[in-house]
Amino acid sequence: MKLKKVHHIAIICSNYSKSKQFYTEILGLEIIREVYREERQSYKLDLALNGEYIIELFSFPNPPARPSRPEAQGLRHLAFEVENIEEAVDSLKLKAVITEPIRTDQYTGKRFTFFTDPDDLPLELYEV
């Protein structure tokens, strides 16, 4: 088997309209397709970053909560690459998104910070 790249990340949200607004208006992801699946009572929103398909955002009736903190087992976070971390943090703050203090990775020397989506999913900005 030869993997080529990550195709997409699937996220199940608790409040579809709030998460849709966060990922499109705050993070600026582009909507590729939005469908409502009547038989599942579920929305599926396909989102792109710079024209590349990256996230499937789902809604389901009454999804169970998944712990994010403290460091629960499973997927830890989703990281987005940025060129200037201060500009990215300032942009989030203007939209009332709280970020952690900017830190430096002791092994790579690169700077990063964390924030959360409406369901407390940990998201990271990583400066390259």
From TrEMBL:
SUPFAM superfamilies: Glyoxalase/Bleomycin resistance protein/Dihydroxybiphenyl dioxygenase. The keyword DNA repair does not apply. Residues 5-128 form the VOC domain. Keywords: Metal-binding. The keyword Metal-binding applies. It comes from the Bacteria. This is VOC domain-containing protein. The gene is ywkD.
